[in-house]
Structures are given as structure tokens and as C-alpha cells.
Amino acid sequence: MDRMRCMLRFSEAQLLEWNSDLTTQRDENGSTPLHFAAALAQQSQRGSICWQVLEANSAALYQSDCNGLFPIHVAASVGESGTITMFLNKSPSSAGLQDSMGRTFLHVAAEKRKVRIVSSACRNRSLLWILNIQDNDGNTALHLAIQARSLRMFCALLGNRHTHLNLSNNIGQTPLDISLYGIPPGIFDDQISEAKIHFALTVVNARSGGSRRDHFEENYTRQLKYDETEQLEKAKEPTQTLCIGVALVATATFTVTFALPGGYKADEHINGGTPTLAGRYAFDAFIIASTFSFVLSVMAMVGLMYSGYSILNPQTRRIYLIAALYLGSTSGTCFLTTFALGLYMVLARVAHKSAIAICVISPLAVICKQMDLWLKWALLAQPLCTRIGLTRTLVIVTTRILFSLLMEFWPIIFIFVWATYTSN
């Protein structure tokens, strides 16, 4: 197969040496051979089809098809960063080529969510001059990255000080305006990328456009045709699944509460019928954890049931649903604590190291729920540091992460504080 490819490449090279005008031939869409080659994978190596065409006629880079797309736009559209690098090395000025809609290759990459290309362009000092080029609609690459709702592309652009944050497009929208109206209305998690993008722009003091905000809100509402009741109806199916989950947690906790580790004292002993391990620190913590787990899961079930009542107004149903989601998550944390403490009481005296290992490993399940949040803050940390400084960035990121951890782990803190109080 490799020998066959070498023969084909050799024949292509001979053909181009024989007639280099073939590189300028167009099909019915105006595409040249370089347009087709730019759409192929792994064309940045020496001897590739792109390389051979460029060697035969570097002017092919500046031929557009019927839609005004140049080969560099095609490479950006399919995410071939290596091919783009080869084009730029051959002719740096090709970076500024604009198609019929006024888009550079960076606009196309942002619109198509090609993160590698956008990130690479933002790190390349020779491409600083194209970062703020506006297309026919007045959009820069930053506008399009926000519209694409890509946090990684946004962070790459925000982290470059040469990216202007307050340019308005033809309808008066700055990146801050687009980020605000890009947040999906209704029931959403405030940790989604759209909310993080808007938060970051607010922190770095990005400005809104000069147009009237009421017009934007009117157009935004009409465009989305948002109906809160409809959104709640869509949430019914996942809430039914969640209701099953919290019901299982409640059932398991109820069962383990009346089947305590260590069993009960025999009737002929003092305090017969009471738990054998009663009075220990771990036992007190276990009881509080199981109580929290059961009560919170029941509260979550009640909230989910009320969120499905169509007789309630949408805002009330929304409140019940958000509360149920949080309570259900927290009940899972308490259930995990119950599991770890139960095993610790059983194993502590006979397998102390294993008991400790179980207590250390168990919280990992809770921490995993925060991984998405931490990754997003890690992405935002570098561009925020570039824009507002290290100290302020550390304060903002640390505060947010600690608050999320507190909201997740407060039951565990209370459980062990109460166990300490009752054991004294």
C-alpha cells in the first residue's frame, strides 16, 4: 500500500511538472485542486498533495471558489490545523483572506467549533492582526466563539490581550450582549459554559453595545419563543428517572437504619434490644448520616412530585424542581457517608487499614460530581489572570470553588461536628 501511494505521488508530481496550469483549473463550483486537497487529512507533510500543488503554483492559495472560499477557509472548516500552518508558512498574508461573507479562516474555525485552530491562532504572534477583523455582519472571531457556546475557544481568545472585547457588530451587539442572550432561558445549571462566558466578560469589565436593551430582549424572547410551562413539561421524563433514584436511596437508608452494623444486644443484657455499638463516635455519625440521607431523599421526592403538578404556576414548579435536584444530590452524599461509616464500624477493629481506605476512597464519588466545574474554572483561570491579574483571579476562582464544595459537603461537616458534640 505504501509503495502504491509513493507511485501515485510521484505521478502527481510529474503531472504538475508537465503542466502547472492544472492547479488553476476549476470545477462547476469554482473549486481548484487546492480546495479539494485542503479538505483532505494530514496534508501538512512534505510530499503531500497540498504541498505538491503549492510547490507547483503558490498563487493557488489566492483563488476562491464560487462562494468566495479560499483553500485556507476549507482547511479551517474541516479542522486541519497542520494544513493551515503550511499555508501560512508559504504565504503569511493568506491569513487575512476573506470570503464572500467577509470571514477569515479564524471566523470559519470559530463558527465550526474547531478549537485547535482557534487556540493555535491565538498563540501565534504573527496572527495578532486578524484577531479583531470583522465580517460583513460586524462579527469578530470572539462574537462567533460565544455564539458557538464554546468555552475553550472563548478562553483562548480572552487570554490574548490583543482581542478587543467591546467591538459591536452591525446590530449593536458586543460579545457581552451575545453572551447574555446566549444563556438558555428557564431551567438551567449556572455552571454551564454560557453562564461561565457571561460571568468572565462581566468580571473583566466588558461593555454592552449602544443599542437599546429592551429591543434586544424583545427580539430574544420572540426568537426563542420561550414558554416556561413547555420547558417544565420537557423536564418531566428526566425528573421521573430522578424520582426513582431518590426513592431507591430512601429505601436503602430506611433498610440499613433498622439493620444496624453490629446488631443489637440480647434481651437478657442491660439495655437489651439496643444497638451493640451505641455510644461510639462512628455510630453517632452513622445515625446522623442515615437520617440526613432518608430525610433529604424524601424531601427531594416531594419536590419532584410538586414540580409535576400542572395546577401550580410555572415559577413555583420551577422552584420545587431546582430544590429537588439539589436535595436529591445531597441525599446521595449522605448515603455515601452512611455506607463508609457502616463499613468502618464493622472493620475498624479487625482491618483498620482497610476501614481507613474505604473512608478515603468513598468521597471520590462526590468529588467526581464537581469535576466539570473544576475543569471550567481551570480553563477560565489563565485568561482571567491575563486580564485582571493573578491576585484577583485567585480570589474569584478559589471563592467559587470553596462555595461549591461547601454546598456539596455541608452535610458531612454537620455529621461529624454533631458526632463530636454527642460523644463529649
From TrEMBL:
It is a multi-pass membrane protein. It holds the Pfam family PGG. It comes from Aegilops tauschii subsp. strangulata (Goatgrass). PANTHER family: ANKYRIN REPEAT-CONTAINING PROTEIN ITN1-LIKE ISOFORM X1, PROTEIN PHOSPHATASE 1 REGULATORY SUBUNIT. It is found in: Membrane. InterPro entries: Ankyrin_rpt (IPR002110), Ankyrin_rpt-contain_sf (IPR036770), PGG_dom (IPR026961). The chain crosses the membrane at residues 242-261, 281-307, 319-344, 350-368, 401-421. Residues 234-346 form the PGG domain. One of its GO terms (cellular component) is plasma membrane. Keywords: ANK repeat, Membrane, Repeat, Transmembrane, Transmembrane helix. Signal peptide: none annotated. This is PGG domain-containing protein. Its main location: membrane.
